[in-house]
Amino acid sequence: MITKTYDDIPEVEVYRLYFRLVNAMIPSKKITEKKMNILIEFLLIKGDKYKHNRFGAKAKSIVIGKLKEKYDWEVSSSSLVLALLQFEKLGYIVKDDDGVKYFNKGHQKVINKIKTSNDFTNITFRIKMRKEELV
After folding, report:
1. pTM of the predicted model, to two decimals?
2. Is 4 buried (19+), middle (13-18) or exposed (0-12) by CB count in 10 A?
3. CA distance 127 to 3
4. How many CA atoms lie within 13 Å of 72's alpha carbon, on the beta-carbon side?
5. What is the rounded CA–CA span in Å between residue 33 and residue 19?
């Protein structure tokens, strides 16, 4: 088991560290820093109405605005849809029978822990993987 502790970091950095760990552990599912920023912006959206519609039209609109505001990126709705399709192909996002997109269960467990944390003053990542999870 590998344990790494970080002290007093913002929520956005917790997500960034998590995705960097995933990149290091599973290189076949690696995402770029830019794609990471897109996923993180979806995660940073607050409000219960986005809990079960994290990748819906309204959420996409919010993310496009945040990407422009934070990074000065001109992102169209269609390019965001393409990015979400890439996340689906990599297994970060899954689609249910009704066509609603969610983070896959493995990522969602970690995201739920981050989202319910009120304190980012001491974050510890514990990684324990079985060989079959790397495939």
Report:
1. 0.82
2. exposed
3. 7
4. 0
5. 9
